[in-house]
Specification:
The chain has 152 residues and is of the alpha/beta class. It has 5 helices and 5 strands. The protein has a single domain (5-145), classed as 3-Layer(aba) Sandwich (Rossmann fold). Bound molecules: ligand CA2.
């Protein structure tokens, strides 16, 4: 029985479309959810799209994915650059992981160039704005079709 893809969003991403449109664009997170769900539907996949400002809640959701999801698409927001706890949870999840960012983090401040998520991820998509969520769904569909079960 196929399970949904967890699309997990970290801190401040609830502000999308409300603040800093020059960096993150004008779509709200709800707009992004709708386009992600629509793309997934065309590929016969379901998504469970969530956002939290809490590191602990993100860790809990990643643990939940081990039982309840076929894969994880993660925009961990600023926790990308700080959280060993998220890395440890991803490493234990035994599910394919795609790291996702709206902005091209490598064109931004040096502290955004390091990611604790990347070592646990199959791949990284960044710099394409909300379109990146659709690209991530397509990439996850390919991974699942190939039978990927974990990142490493
Ligand atoms: O580019 C991304 O998707 C990021 O994950 C976004 C994070 C940032 O810390 C990462 O380095 C890259 C920040 C999310 C904050 O989103 C906002 C949206 C609108 C207004 C203010 C913040």
């Amino acid at each position: 029985m196929p399970k949904p893809i967890f699309v997990l969003n970290g801190p401040n991403l609830n502000l999308l479309g409300v603040r800093e449109p020059t960096v993150y664009g004008s779509e709200t997170l709800d707009d992004v959810r709708l386009r992600t769900e629509a793309r997934a539907r065309t590929m016969g996949l379901a998504v469970d799209f969530r956002q939290t400002n809490s590191e602990g809640e993100l860790v809990g959701w990643i643990q939940e994915a081990r039982e309840k999801a076929d894969g994880i698409i993660l925009n961990a927001g600023a926790y990308t650059h700080t959280s060993v706890a998220i890395l440890d949870a991803l490493s234990a999840a035994e599910r394919p992981v795609i790291e996702l960012h709206l902005s091209n983090v490598f064109r931004r401040e040096a502290f955004r160039h390091h990611s604790y998520v990347s070592p646990a991820a199959q791949g990284l998509i960044c710099g394409f704005g909300p379109k990146g969520y659709e690209i991530a769904v397509e990439a996850m569909a390919d991974l699942l079709a190939k039978g990927a079960s974990k990142a490493t």
